[in-house]
Amino acid sequence: MADLDDIRDGDNFGLNTPADTSAFYLKGMRNASWGIKNRMSRIFNKDSGRTVMLAFDHGFLMGPTSGLERIDLNIAPLAEEADCLMGCRGMIRSSIPAENSKPICLRTDTGTTILTEMNHNVLISEEDAIRLNVSCMAAMLSVGDADTEATTIANFSRLVDIGQKYDIPVMGVTAVGKDMARDSRYFGLASRVCAENGASIVKTYYTEGFENVVAACPVPIVIAGGKKLPELDALDLCYKAINCGASGVDMGRNVFQSAKPLAMMKAVKGVVHDGLTPAEGFQMFNDL
Question: Residue 216 CB: number of other CB atoms within 10 A?
Fold first, then answer.
């Protein structure tokens, strides 16, 4: 066991040395199976190496919150502009047309709506994920909370075992422990724990020093949009994260709660895939 009395913060992240992507265009996938690579290539654009995911899994905790009252009316029309859809099985079956060809990232952990207890979630069956033809499975992983850390890591590790068995990538969704600061040290720890436990993708939050979080995570990172921001600020968040090395975004409220959700999706794609500045993306948003 490592000596816990002399842990030193990392200070050599090799920021000027990019990860080797000569064998496959996404980092950390050199030794992945054909099935994993194939599914990852559905999610991440092969030209940019990035993704714009549309998250609408909020309802399993929050119910019909603003923008998610009608998935069939508010989310389904945006599907063609997303690179990947992230949702729960009930909403996908009931509200996303079966002819949709976009890859699905399925929220596979489920449980109580009480936020302080959600870390005790359980997994849905792998058979249901396969029936839905998903390209990725997602579950939360929380570190820094003595009451829930072991449960979420065990849950997540089991999901990775399932993913390896069926060649389905797993996305680790980092959660903030109640005693942890929302800083690069915490998100770097949480992201690394996801990767150490077998994640193919990590979803976490942008923060100052994010370039170190990305560098220390050997698999692609996508950022969570978090709470609703003014459109220009949300585009600036995307731009900063991409410049720090993020492989994309998983936006929810900053898209479906926008005054013009479809225009916002297109503007986010412009920043993530085409290198638009926040100002250029905002101009696109206003023009659409």
Answer: 17
> Under 8 Å CB-to-CB from 77, ≥6 apart: which residues?
262
Active site residue 27: no
Contact (Cβ atoms closer than 8 angstroms) between residue 14 and residue 207: no
Spatial CB neighbours of 199, under 8 Å, sequence gap ≥ 6 = 156, 160, 170, 171, 172, 219
CA distances in angstroms from 236 to 50, 206, 253, listed in the order given:
17, 11, 15
Domain extents in the chain = 47-287
Give the integer Cα–Cα distance in Å for 149 and 7.
Answer: 20
Find the largest Cα–Cα distance for the chain.
58
Q: Which amino acid is it at 140?
A: M
CATH architecture type of domain 47-287:
Alpha-Beta Barrel (3.20)
What DSSP state is assigned to residue 270? H
Question: Out of 27, 203, 266, 269, which one is annotated catalytic?
Answer: 203
- Confirm whether pTM is higher than 0.85: yes
- Summarize pLDDT for 38-88 with one digit per residue, the tens: 999 999 999 999 999 999 999 888 889 999 999 999 999 999 999 999 999
